[in-house]
Amino acid sequence: MEIPKKIFLMGFMGCGKSTHGKKLAKALNRPFVDLDHYIERKEDKSIPEIFKHKGEEYFRAKESEYLEQVVRRYDSSVISLGGGTPCFNNNDEFIFKSGLAIYVSMPPEALLQRLSQSENKRPLLSGKNETENLEIVKSLLQERESTYEKAPIKVKGIDLTTEKILEELSLFIGKKQ
């Protein structure tokens, strides 16, 4: 078995999907697509602006539409999903049918630390104190983790390297042969 044409990185916001996705795409000599950036380009608005002006329901519908568009458009690619992408509108089924998903996991405390240091301010966490934000991250992660855990490959986001992802890919492919 060879490496599937589509590789999806999923996990909570701030876990490193985009960072590792770019490196993995380069290592595999494939295009990299960050679904959130793709949505922002297509909508000509940032995701926080889309949420603010059009609401979550609109965003989730567009997210599903653009996910399908990206999958059709690129024959072979590494795709970084938004944190909620696999958790809505049966996107998880579409993802698992379309390629190989890798879950980049990370504990809530580490996620919050990364998110608070990030230049991308997340509307979900703005205007709240650290204790409130940790509770939000824990709660959302708990809601989403059962979907993330369906991914056939799971890697720990802390100290993750491209080599480690490639190693897990090789092990997975080896088991499938």
Task: Kindly list the characteristics that best describe this protein.
single chain; 177 residues; alpha/beta; Rossmann fold; 5-stranded parallel beta sheet; 5 strands; 56% helix; 12% strand
Shape: globular
Number of domains: 1
The strand order across the widest sheet is: 2-3-1-4-5
Helix fraction, binned, reads: 55-70%
Task: Give the helix/strand class.
Answer: alpha/beta
Order of helices and strands: EHEHHEHEHHEH
- How does the major sheet shape up? 5 strands, parallel
Number of strands: 5
The radius of gyration computed from the alpha-carbon positions, rounded to a whole number of angstroms, is: 16 Å
CATH architecture: 3-Layer(aba) Sandwich
What is CATH's topology name? Rossmann fold
- CATH class reads Alpha Beta
Question: What is the CATH superfamily classification?
Answer: P-loop containing nucleotide triphosphate hydrolases
Q: Distance between termini?
A: 6 Å
Q: What are the low-pLDDT stretches, counting only 5+ consecutive residues below 50?
A: none
Number of helices: 7
The whole-number mean of residue pLDDT values reads 93
Sheet-strand content, in percent, reads 5-15%
